[in-house]
Every structure is written in structure tokens, then in C-alpha cells.
Amino acid sequence: MKNLVFALSIVFVLSACSSDSSDNENQVITLNPTNLEIYFPPVNSNEWETISIEDLGWNSAGEQPLYDFLAERETDAFLVLKNGRIVIERYFGDFQQNDNHAWNSAGKTLTAMIAGIAQEEGFLSLNDSSAAYLGTAWSSLSTEQEAQITVFNHLTMTTGLDYDVDDIFCTDPECLLYKNEPGQFWFYHNGPYTLLDNIITNAVGQDFEDYFSAKIGSRIGMQGAWVSIGFNNVYFSNARSMARFGILNLNNGVWDGQTILGDATFLTDMKNTSQNMNQAYGYLYWLNGKDSYRVPGSEIEFSGKLIPNAPNDLYAGLGKNDQKLYIVPSEELVIVRMGGDAGETLLGPSSFDNELWGLLNDLMD
């Protein structure tokens, strides 16, 4: 019965944040590529400019193999945007444009940007001890050990907390044990990341979800909700909302003339290597084009690029069951994939990334 009530609660929340297609007819404006300055879809509207594969000079013969691959790999929604304009928008099975889907760990990118906004507004500093916002005894460490862990460590997966625990998602003090000095080892440990929600809430004096909505979500036209599932705080939205956030990233924190995040140093650091233990990790963003990378659940460093088939400057939000938000500045692309597990049940990067980019290269050739 408890599980049923929880499930119904999620349905209610997600229904409340969905657009009603009967009240707001979807509109598209087809555009020829004469002027491809970045486009921002209007807030509180389904209007969205499109541009065709043919007008871009892409290889239309690559479309069907791409769609077949996506359908075979449990995809629900797939979007490709060029300069903010929709090139491809496909939904599979019963999934529709206004349906909501979990971002899973791709939503870490939302937390990274809202942390940057909180710092820009003077509520916190990445160099602050996280104990300044979490209080003492938030872990099983001594007060002195807690004081050494900074907000920066939470943002970069370098807290030094023990990841060899039964539940890496657990945020209870008994799950947060000392293993290494902070900043000395990188491991994809979800519990310390989740505590960023409390850090931001206590720093700004406003509920995390409300602050996110006021500073990002409502300003760029995202619809969605943060839903507590176990220890995790998971963002749900439709695919177009994920695409809107991608456009905000592509335009360096500015939305249609409105500065959402203006701290150029934070933006640069967020999307570049944040520490010397995992070159492919920024502030909760995954980075391509580096000489080596580490992945969730492993202590091994792998040689080569994270996604060999993808452009070197790609950065991404990557979530469990292959939720994907790719941003490629050199190609002015935003690509969204939502759906079920594509075959490996991993928390972030997977072989699906490279296979997908092989097909995208065929399409864009």
C-alpha cells in the first residue's frame, strides 16, 4: 500500500507539471538556414522553430538506421537541435511530447549550474567547508575531518568519503565514513553529491526546488519537478525541457538576452577538467576529448576519449539507463535522449554513447 501511495504521488506531481496539449496546440515554424544565429523557443509556449536535415545538407539516408537503433534500444524521446532549432524530434512507443521522464544523473548538471548561481549571488563559495551549511555531525567523520571537505569537493566527486559502503546513495551519517583526504581521489559517489541540495537550501535560505525554479526553470520555460526517490532527488521533465537547458548551456548561461549565470570563470571551470584524477569530469558534467577517463563504480583509469566517435568539445549530462544531454559548441548542437536502459545498466557513460555517435556521424556527414 505504501508503494502504491508513493507511485500515485509521483503521477500527481508529474501530471501537475505537464503541459496540456489540448489547451496549447503545438506549433512549429520551418526555417531555411540563411541565418542560423542561436534561437530561443518562447517561454510558456509550444512554438519552436525547426530546420530540416535536407536544408542542413546532412545525409538523409542516415535517418532510418538511426531511428531503428533508437527503437531497438528502448528509447522514449530523441531530439537533435541545431542552433536551438529542432532538426529531429522523435517519440517511440506510447511516449509522447508532453510526457515526463526521469533525468537520473543527467540532472546533476542542473545542480551544478544552480550552485554557480548561488555562488554568484554571494550565498556560498565553492571554497567553503560544506559543514558551514550542513552543520556538524552530518557524517561519521570527526569535526576536524568534516571541516576539510568543501563545496568544491561535493561538486567534483572528491570528498574522500568511503565509497565501499553498502549503499553509495545513502546520505545518513552512518553511511558517510572517512576513506581518503578530500581532493586526493575521484570516485562517483552519489551520497555526497545529493547533499549539495541541502547545502544550497541552507545557503540561500530557500527550498532547493523553489530556488531552482526561480533562477533557471521558469526563466527558460522548463516544466518539471524534483521528486524524492529513496535518498535521491531526481528531476523529471519532458524532453523539450531538457533541450531548453541544453540551449542555455550552448549560449554560455544567457537565455535570449537574460543572464541566468554570468560568472564566466565558473562556467568555464564547470565544463572543463575540475581535478587531476579524472580528466573527463568537470563540475558534475562529463567531458569528451581528454586523454583518459574514469567511470562510475570503478577505480580504474582508462586511456583515450570518453566517447571516441563524438566531437572533442562535447560535454554532457549522463544518467542511469542512458539519459543523455549532449552539448557540442563547435557544431552548435544539443542532443537529448530519454528512455530505458540501452543494454548496460550503468550510472553514466556507456557503450551506447559511442554507438549512437557513430550513427549521428553518418547522418551529419
Automatic annotation (TrEMBL):
GO terms for molecular function: hydrolase activity. Its EC number is 3.-.-.-. Pfam families: Beta-lactamase. It comes from the Bacteria. The keyword Coiled coil does not apply. InterPro entries: Beta-lactam-related, Beta-lactam/transpept-like, Diverse_Enzym_Activities. Residues 1-18 form the signal peptide. Keywords: Hydrolase, Signal. Residues 73-336 form the Beta-lactamase-related domain. This is Serine hydrolase domain-containing protein.
